Structure formats: C-alpha cells, structure tokens
Amino acid sequence: MEDRQENSRVRESRALIWDVARKSGVSISTVSRVLNGRPDVSVATRDKVLAHVRDLGYNSHRHTHTIVRAPLQRVGVSIPNEEHFMGMLHGITDALNKQKAQLSFCSRSSCGPERTLLERLQADGADAALLVLPKESDEELLELCHAGFPFVVIDPRTPLSDDIPTVTAANIGGARAATKHLLSLGHRRIGLLVGDARWCMSIDRLAGYQAVMFATGLPHDPALIRESDFTLEGGYQAAMELLSLPERPTAIFAFSDDMAVGVLHAALELGLSVPRDLSVVGFDDARFASFVTPALTTVHQPRYELGYTGVDVLFRNRAEARLDAIHTSLSTRLVVRHSTGPCPESF
C-alpha cells in the first residue's frame, strides 16, 4: 500500500511541474531552473512561472524529496534488434546490476501496436525506461514526461525536444575522421551511403563529411550520395549504382558496417579489388568488421558505453531530482584496417 501511495505522489509531483510548464508557456527545464533558483531566467519568466506554481500548489521541496525516496526498481528497455545491439545490452545490464535494478524488454510485437508507449512500458511493471532508436514521435515521448515516467533515449532516430534526455555517439566527429582518412589517401571522389536521411545519425554523419570537404575546398557532388536502409542488401544495391557511374568513386563511406559489407560484395561482383581499386569505410565497428575480407576500416561506436551511460543518466537524474534534460555525446574513433588504401592513379 505504501509503495502504491509513494508512486502516486511521484506521478502527481511530476505532472504538476508539467502543468506549470504548460500554463506558463515554457519548457520543463525552464521551470526546473526557476525552482532551483538558477540566474539564467528572465525576471518576467520567473514571475510568471512562480505565479503558476502558487496557483497549482506546487512544492519543489516535496517534489525533490519524493523522487529521492522512490528508487527505480525495474527498467524497461525498448530496443529494435537485441542481437545487433548486444554490446549496448551488456552495458545496460552491467549498469543495472550495479544499481540493483531489474531489466525487462518491451516491444511493439510483444505488447501490441495499439497500446500507448506508457502502457507497453508498464505492462511488465517497469517504472523507468531506456528507449533505443525509438520509433515514437517527439509528442509521444513528451507524453511520458507528462505522465512523470522517467526515461532516457539512446540514439534518437529524429530530432527531439530539449526536454528529453538523450545519449548519443559523436557522429559528426566520427564522420569527420573517416573523411579525413580518405582524403589523406588521395581520394577526392568519395561516395556516400547515408542510410535513412531523416535519422539524426545520418544527418550528423553527412554534416561531418560536408564540414571536412568544405574546409578543404573540395567540391561536394550530390551524384555520389545514395540513401539506403542501413542493411547489407541496401548497401549492395546502392554500391552497384555508384560503381556503375561513368566516373565512379574511388572510395565509398557507408554509414553502417552492414552497408559497407554490401559494398564489398558489389565490388567483388564487379571485379574490383578492395582496396587497390576501391577503398571502403564503415561506421559502427560491429563484431564482424575485423573478420570480413578485407578487414573493414570503420568508425568505432562505443556501444557498451552508450548502454552503461544511458542507465547512469537515468539514475543520476532520478537521485538528484533534476528535471533539466541531459544530452550526452560519447566520443567515437576511427579504426583503420585493410579496406582502405591509396587512391588509384587511373581506372
């Protein structure tokens, strides 16, 4: 009975701060800054927020103490492909074990697509969640905030509200490193397989590539860009198109290792030697990257650390009663193997 009453008070307190934000016409993080006495809020905004706080009877100290007294016990994980994200799951599991919390999986297939995100997460008793590449819209995720349900998004598909905490890899930096590597080898016609162009990771990786090309004064040829679906088959089809151009690229930078392997298959089918005739770079550093032939040069994503940090952010926000969204970006690094080499002098 006490647990149910405690959980009810938590939801009530979180809903109250959402109501304050909505009535004041500001973000949840702005309300939090006002309640915490932060100086980076205008006088007019502060007065407006505090007026609604008084009207709604909100007590920031009660809210803070309630959060501290209600530890998270069962964290739901929504993840698109458990096998592909095994390294991330290891990080999540290790971090949850440290927090003495349980893990439960939640997916559309197991809980039914007609149910709301909150219903699916709570179906197995979860009181918090890690959402990996969630398909839900920004509005659906904000509904979790409205309901007072703690969560962190790892690798958002599309841009999200500043009020939603996220943990991502440094995609721009990784793409910059890959592009600089190919340029250092003499490549100038670099084909790109961008995956889904609407995804944040594709947007950031394309931005990293474009930044390096712009900084070096090299032309950016849109004809060398293909959108695919991050799969081996998609990479193969897109590579066949690029390698069939009258002036084919001398290197291809694929925004996933799966697509990069598809490029290797296309090159083999066309009689091209990698890296003598074509250099190939991937992104992810999947487990198979060092076992394909030739071993794949790729950008290492810290999958384990993404999972571990996601749990850390979730519990740190909860323990410190902070409502300011935390956006964490973890560094990537280029791993040079055997699929890249000097640009061929002629075709």
From TrEMBL:
Protein name from the UniProt record: LacI family transcriptional regulator
Presence of keyword DNA-binding: yes
Family matches, as Pfam families: LacI, Peripla_BP_3
Swiss-Prot/TrEMBL keywords: DNA-binding, Transcription, Transcription regulation
Keyword Repeat: no
SUPFAM superfamilies: lambda repressor-like DNA-binding domains, Periplasmic binding protein-like I
Domain HTH lacI-type: 19-58
GO MF entries: DNA-binding transcription factor activity; transcription cis-regulatory region binding
